[in-house]
Amino acid sequence: MSQKRHPRESYQNIAHAHTNSIKFVAFYQLECMTSYLDFEKPIADFEAKLAEMKQIASEKKVDLKDAIGKFEEQLKELKKETYGNLTRWQRVQLSRHPDRPYSLDYIKGICEEFIELHGDRTVRDDKAMIGGFGRIGTQTLLFVGQQKGRNTKQRQMRNFGMANPEGYRKALRLMKLAEKFNKPIVTLIDTPGAFPGIEAEQRGQGEAIAHNLREMFMLKVPIICIIIGEGASGGALGIAIGDRVLMLENTWYSVISPESCSSILWRSWEYKEQAAEALCLTAEDMKKNKLIDGIIKEPLGGAHTQAEKMYDVVKKAILDQLKKLDKLEVEERIAQRIDKFCKMGVYNEKD
Amino acid sequence: MSWFKRTEKNIQTPTDKKRETPEHLWHKCSSCKRVMLTRELQNNYYTCLYCNHHERINSAEYFAILFDKNQFTEMDTKLTSADPLHFEDTKTYPARVKVAQQKTGLKDAVRTAYGKMNGEELVIACMDFQFIGGSMGSVVGEKIARAIDKALNLKIPFLMISRSGGARMMEAGFSLMQMAKTSAKLALLDKAGIPYISLLTDPTTGGVTASFAMLGDFNIAEPGALIGFAGPRVIRETIGRDLPEGFQTAEFVLENGFLDFIVHRKDLKDELTSLLSMLKDPTAEKS
Ligand SMILES: [Zn+2]
Questions:
Q1: Could you tell me if B234 lies within 8 Å of chain A, comparing CB atoms?
Q2: What residues of B are in contact with residue A351 (Cβ under 8 Å)?
Q3: Structural domains in chain B, sorted by start
Q4: Nearest-CB residue to B84 (from A213, A281, A289)
Q5: pLDDT for residue A116
Q6: Is B200 within 8 Å of B213 (Cβ atoms)?
Q7: pTM of whole model > 0.80?
Q8: Domains along chain A?
Q9: Which end of chain B is more exposed for a tag (fewer CB within 10 A), N or C?
């Protein structure tokens, strides 16, 4: 499992392979300066030109309505073409878009009321994993999710959405509370992985995740899991055992990030695009392979382009699924949950 | 200095000779580098006569050590890997599997069986590290799941012997979900009150640690085994400094509270038997 790394590799590669946290910060700062991804450059240019035309029209009081209208049509077509033909790697990029809504954004966008709850009652409060009770109309739900930060300070506080063992234990503590008070659970998954650190190992990162997997299968209340950004490996799965597992359209979910996969199998960071293709990590792939239950459509251009609309769509998806899950008896729901995961896997069995 | 040199050479001669002898006769400890007869090593449960180092062994050796008279019924021997994602990196996945099968004579990275240990029935699933690093794909997950089903049906204890680098990347999402599948089955075993012992051996990392390996009613390990979630290299790169001495050894994991005990391989069978016998209901009728 050895690998060679070129010293001048971009921070981006290093960041998503869980490397040096100082370099992490540098990467996210860089990324923060622009809200467009590389493949969005033609769209960015178009939008800049459009803005310029609109400014001229208003300043010089000239009528450019027709020209602007035509331009807007063209932009719409360009967007349709760009976002309608995304490669797997481009979806990975979109899932990490710096403007993308994070767990708390969804919760606040969905709920009329939310009370955040803290701590695992053993070690500390892990700020990479958030949770609490929220209310939609008369329905109370428990939310847990990994939380990323939006500026440098927040990112460090949130540890880039990489939870420690106490984060997984906090999540389970809250889920058990939900079970006690008979409230359904919604988990929001957005993590580049569980944190790989000395203290994380001392406090049993593996045990914490494993424990969640086993316990979540037996929870008596409905569980809906939604991948809202990155779904990396065991760190994602640790809160993703549910009656329904849904992925937003521009997210990824797999056993490893494309960068790390590239470094291990190709022994270089250069093959992340190929690795993304090989891993079949998009919502569409995962649905096709029956590893998730459904896909939630995003607005053209991604969740961040029309966040409010996205919250409504997610809210509707949660309530729709809940209605179906509520109809099942507890034992039946648990049995179906177990059965679904036990069917996953493809192998040959012949004489 | 020619005189001195010659003497030195004379002293070294026997060792040189040993190094040249056929591999099957002599064994050099991979830890202390001392040399012993392979037969002696085997009689000592594949642990070093001098430093107690536990050499990595495979399912065949564990079955021979644990099942009475090496008698057992192996299950699901026909399961082999498919290639659902048509995965290809520098090689195709089926090519990698084929090479591993030819090299090891195994079908995949786990073997499952049931039989008697000191007269008491149990199911054992044992991973084979030599098969693509003991990585967990659909075959490994399914065979472990069925082994747990067997323990559930026969109401007999389940022993899992882990030795794995974690997930099998070439099965991507399918591989990840084997963590869920095995944990689901263990939840059922737990509910049924059937004992589950997880033995962690060198190395046990990644998705295996983050699922069945850490879910034992009893988590036990062999001395010196590397046990962790993230691999040492990844952690070193993340935190940007060297790791403390003894980090992620079985002793470290025991000290931090995630193992019940560490057991020398020569005591394994009897320790397991004692432990399981203490859990038995003395009022239950003997069949
Ligand atoms: Zn030795």
A1: yes
A2: 78
A3: 1-55 (no CATH), 58-279 (3.90.226.10)
A4: A289
A5: 98
A6: yes
A7: yes
A8: 92-342 (3.90.226.10)
A9: C
